[in-house]
Amino acid sequence: MESSPLELSVPATVARADGDTRAAPVAKGSRIADMDIIRGMALFGVLMMNLAEVFRIPYFGHGGPEVDASLLERIVVRVELMVLAGKAMTLFSILFGAGLAIFWERASARGPGATWLLSRRLFFLALFGLAHGFLIWNGDILFLYALSGLVALLFLRAPTWVLLAVAFVSWGWSTVVGPNLPAVWAFAIRNPGPSHYDEALRVYGTGTYLEILRFRASELVRFEPFTYILNLPDVLTKMLLGIAIWRSKVLDLTVRETHLRKLRWIAFTGITLTFGYMLFRWIQFEIYHPPPVRSPWKRVLFLLCILSCALGYGAGLLLLLRRANWRRWLGVFAPLGRMAFTNYLTQSIVFSTVFYSYGLALIGKVSNAQAALMGIVFYTLQGFASAIWLRHFRFGPFEWAWRSLTYGRLQPMRRALEANDV
C-alpha cells in the first residue's frame, strides 16, 4: 500500500491585540519550504503507484503485470517499480515524522498541552481515514498514519538513541518477525486469489454504489487487519527516523552546510547501491513484489534497499535545493506539497470515479502505461490548480477543515485576511 501525502500544520504563537495567544497555524517565515517541495515530488510517486496497483485494478488479489503485456507496458512497470515503488511511501512517512516533531516542539514552547493538541489532530486524521477508506476507496493510508503517529507520540520526549533503537526493533518486526507469525501465514492462505479478483472486477466495474460499499467493507474487514501486523511497525519506523532527522537539523537550510558530506554520502550510497540491486532484480524479474516470507533475509535486503533509496532521494534533493537554479525549477512542486492532503483526497475522488461503475467504469480496462499517462496529465493539472488556489487562499480546503478541527475554531481561509500567513 502506498502511503499518503500529508503535512502537519505547525502551531505558532500568535500575539493579538486582545491578548489571545492561542495556537495557530505556522507563519510564512517559519515554514520549511524544502519539505513542501520534497512532499510535492513524493506525491507524484504516490499517485503513479496507486494508479498502477490500486485504482486501475482491484487492490486485493491482484498479481504481477499481465503476461501478454507489450514491451512498453513491461518497461513502464519495471521503471515504476524500480524508481517509485515503496520509496514515495517511505519518504512521506519520514516527512510525517519530522512534521510531528516540528508541531510538538513549537506547541511545547508555548506551554503545556502540546501532546493533547497533536493527539487531537491525529484523531481527526483517523476519522478522515475511516471515511476515505470506506466511502471512496480501500487504498487509504490516512488511518494507518494516524495510528502510527499516536504511537510515535510516546517517543517525542525520548533521546535520539532511543528513537533509533525503537525504530530498529519495529523495522525488524515488520521485516523478519511479523511475516513469519502464524497469523500472517493464515492471512496468506486466505489471501484473495483469481476468484476474488474476478468478483472485485465485477462489483467495482458494474455494481451500484451501495454494492461497492458493501463489498469494500467486507474486503477491509477480512484482509486489512492482518496487513497492520506488518505495516504499522514499518510506518512507525520511518516516522521515528523522521523525528531523528529533524533533530539532526539537516532540514534546516541555515545549518545544512555543516551536513554536506553526510548528505552526499547518503545520496550516493542510497541511490547507487539500491539501483544496482534493483537492476539485478530487474534482470531476474523478481522486482514486482518483495520475495516471499520464506526468504526472510532476501526480504530484509529488498526492504532495506527501499529505505536507503528513499533516504538517498531525500538527501539528493536537499543538496540540489542548495542551488538557486534547481530551487527555482523544483519550486513548482511546493504548492502541491503545501496542498498535499487536498491533492491526495482529490486523486482518490477523481480516479475512483474514473475507474468505478458510477463513473467511467474503466477498472480492469486500462494498461499500466495508459494509467501512467493519465497520472502525469492529472498531476500536472493539480500543480497548476494548487498554485492558482494558493494565490488566493492560505491553504487547501481539506487542510482548512483539518486545521479548524485541530484548533477547535474556524481558520481564516482567504489570504487577504492575514497577508503574512501561508
From TrEMBL:
Native organism: Pendulispora brunnea
Key words of the record: Membrane, Transmembrane, Transmembrane helix
Pfam families cross-referenced by the UniProt entry: DUF418 (PF04235)
UniProt name for this protein: DUF418 domain-containing protein
Transmembrane feature ranges: 81-104, 116-137, 263-280, 300-321, 369-390
Limits of the DUF418 domain: 256-408
PANTHER family, per database record: INNER MEMBRANE PROTEIN (PTHR30590)
